[in-house]
Amino acid sequence: MTQPFSGSNFVKTASPGRAAATSALSFTGTNINFNNDTIEFTTGSAISQDGGFIQNCILYRTAGSPIQYSGENGTYIDNIRIVAPQTVFSGNILVSGSTNVLQTSLTNNGTLENRSINSFTLTIAGNITNNGTIKNSVNYSLSVNISGNFTNNGAWSNTTTTLNGSGTQLLSMTQPFSGSNFVKTASPGRAAATSVLSFTGTNINFNNDTIEFTTGSAISLNGGNLRQCVLFRTLPSPIRITGGNDTYIESVGVNAPQTEFVGSVLVSSGNSLLTSLTNNGILRNRNINTFTLNVNGSLTNNGTIMDNTSYNLGINITGDITNNGLWKNTTTTLAGTNDRTITCSSAFSGANFTKSSATGNITALTSIEFSGATVNFGGSLLTFPDEGMLSVSNGSFGNAVIDGSSIRFYMQKSYCQTTQFNTAVTLLGTFVAGANVAFNGDVLNQGTLMNHTINSFTVAVAGNLENFGTIANNNFYTLSLNISGNITNNGIWNNNQTTLNGTSDQYIYLNNQIDGRLRFDAGSGTTGTWQGPSGSLAGNAGFSGATTQILTFLTAVTNSAAGQYYRAGTSGNSRSFFINTQANPARMVTLNFLIEGLYDSGGAMKTALDLNGQPVFGSGNADQVTIELRSASNFSNILYKREFVLLSTNGEVSFIVPGNMTASYYLSIRHHNSLLTTSAAPVSFGSTNVSYNFDAPSKAFGNNLTQTHDGFFALYSGDVNQDGVIDTGDMTIVDNRSMEFSEGYQPSDLNGDGVVDTADMTIVDNNSSNFVSVIVP
């Protein structure tokens, strides 16, 4: 043809012969029906239709350039088979019926859709490259079956695309795929991603077959889901899964050196990562039920791990754990029996943190914080770095053996049970002891030590115990202490009873009296009568058990009780107990200051609230702070510090420091979202009572206080990341937490109302605009 054919019908009757195109064929408004016979393209290679249709026809070409088929104005194909090395579609082609088969590779440069009278399927027994548009018609849908490779460089939004090849099918995309369904039938082959894969609103179901990421390394899912699929990669770079708009994964296995989650990924049932996971986005369960994600490797969280609105997320992890973000799903389980590490720059705030087996040691590479969690380490060994801290608030901790060197244990509104400490421990906050708590090293109490409210409990201390805080009974039940080493009391000691039951001489150093029952255990096998500084204690109204193994003081132990105690018998004397008074008693320090974010009015602050609107540290306490005593000649040298001291709503802090702190020191105040603030000059500790008031700019070094709305002065709030300056770094943290509707006690909640919102952002923004930063000597 040199001119288009525009007759209404162009028909070939069935016969042994075929038609041979020696030029391009062009039809206008023509209905072509070849009754299942063949057009062979010899020197011709193209057919175009402007309207009409072609049906019951085989388009055939053996070699060379592709068959090019172009349609316009409602042209459709029906029961067409193309046998050629390559086919190119252009214009607008409609698919009618479901018996159209391209036994060839297809390049679509036009618009391909179903005829709008029904839903139809196009079968491509080769590769497909889409540079144009593949879509559904207005009322019905198009399905495409592909047995070869898949390349999308255009718009692809039909209802169902199925990969049904028996060999490896390559997947490549420069544009997102937005069809409703992307399916692979179960077969010996697999799909191989040679680029980033991007899907929008697509339900992907691979029927438990595999996508191997070769030169590609990422899959992006904006809506829809990924189901029954194995993601596989051998190269060292991670497979990145990006989710958004309620994307969920279900029955997905990932077998790669590393997996990375970005955006928002929802977990449904049956997912298992045979790899380590880095979460840089938001990881939650799908909000139709409670689901568990299995991570058979390490998990690093730099984003958010949390429950969805109505149901819970569980995570089982066999490898190391690192948390740098928000981690508050309901249950995290350390599965397996292997050794592992924990690194923590942010708190674990999920409801349950559990280790499934006592076998396998855990090494904490940093301090660890749990908030609102029931923590159960399954009886395993947990080792901390030197002077590392274990922090537990609004929950419980138990079933662990703690090791390390001079660790610190902070507790608030929590309790500890079935835990053995094999190292020296400093107790901070309020340590509430349940059953089976034992300290095999020295204990320094700088907070409150008491029993759990559910019963009376006994705590064993195999080393020395020095008290700078409070030791007391809790509620209607009592705390008993069995101590094998020496004791020193600089604070309040008023528990039910304290028994010294060591095997050698023991010493008591009194800076303050002991009001609870003190008992000396001479040990089994000793006989005779107890002797005190004034002689025999038999008949002494201040004691009971003077002729038994255990001597009990019936009155408070004061300086008047100083001296040596032992049980004298015919077979020899027992070991001795010495009560000594120190010449240089501990110092009571009282500081007064206000915090800008918590400030209310009239020189008083509000209490910091938790996510339930309850005071975090009890009624009358605004917050907690750390006080540092720094060298007068070298400010960088911290000589002593008291952590987690309660700050009352009227701005007062009181605590005790050792008696050997007798020089002059700079006093620095640390608060979790305020600027480090230091006294204007070193403060003398020459007397037993030390006080200092930050009530004017001249009282702070560099005049670094802000004025409140009613004329008082306060510490600047807004240093959320504690880098010494209030700037965009702090603003970003607060802004992110605000967008997450984050709740509870945390550094981002500057005004302490239990929620992060624009009110907190305003404080940071104002101080950032004024270039506020730390000023130190």
How does this model look, in words?
This protein is mostly beta strands. The chain has two helices and 73 strands. It has a 46-stranded mixed sheet that branches. It has a 15-stranded mixed sheet that branches. Strands 65, 66, 68, 69 and 70 form a five-stranded antiparallel sheet that branches.
User: In one word, what is the shape?
Assistant: elongated
Count up the helices.
Answer: 2
Rg from Cα: 38 Å
Low-confidence stretches: none
Give the tally of β-strands.
Answer: 73
- Mean pLDDT, as a whole number? 94
Instruction: Give me the secondary-structure category.
Output: mainly beta
Q: In which range does the helix fraction lie?
A: under 10%
Largest sheet: 46 strands, mixed
Roughly how many Å apart are the termini? 95 Å
> What is the beta-strand fraction?
over 45%
Which short descriptors sum up this protein?
777 residues, 51% strand, 46-stranded mixed beta sheet, elongated, 15-stranded mixed beta sheet
Describe the secondary structure blueprint for this structure.
Layout: E1 9-11, E2 19-21, E3 25-41, E4 46-60, E5 67-72, E6 76-96, E7 100-108, E8 111-114, E9 120-124, E10 128-130, E11 133-134, E12 142-146, E13 150-152, E14 155-156, E15 160-163, E16 169-173, E17 181-184, E18 191-193, E19 197-213, E20 218-232, E21 239-244, E22 248-255, E23 258-267, E24 271-273, E25 276-279, E26 282-285, E27 291-295, E28 299-301, E29 304-306, E30 313-317, E31 321-323, E32 326-328, E33 331-334, E34 340-344, E35 352-355, E36 362-364, E37 368-371, E38 374-383, E39 389-393, E40 396-403, E41 407-412, E42 415-421, E43 425-433, E44 437-439, E45 443-445, E46 448-451, E47 457-461, E48 465-467, E49 470-472, E50 479-483, E51 487-489, E52 492-494, E53 497-500, E54 506-510, E55 517-521, E56 529-532, E57 535-536, E58 543-544, E59 550-553, E60 563-568, E61 577-581, E62 587-592, E63 599-601, E64 604-605, E65 621-631, E66 638-648, E67 652-657, E68 664-670, E69 677-678, E70 683-684, E71 689-693, E72 706-707, E73 713-714, H1 728-739, H2 758-769
Parallel strand pairs: 1-3, 2-3, 3-4, 4-5, 4-6, 5-6, 6-7, 6-8, 7-9, 7-10, 8-11, 9-12, 10-13, 11-14, 12-15, 13-16, 15-17, 16-18, 17-19, 18-19, 19-20, 20-21, 20-22, 21-23, 22-23, 22-24, 23-25, 23-26, 24-27, 25-28, 26-29, 27-30, 28-31, 29-32, 30-33, 31-34, 33-35, 34-36, 35-38, 36-38, ...
Antiparallel strand pairs: 55-59, 56-57, 56-60, 58-59, 60-61, 62-67, 63-64, 65-66, 65-68, 68-69, 68-70, 72-73
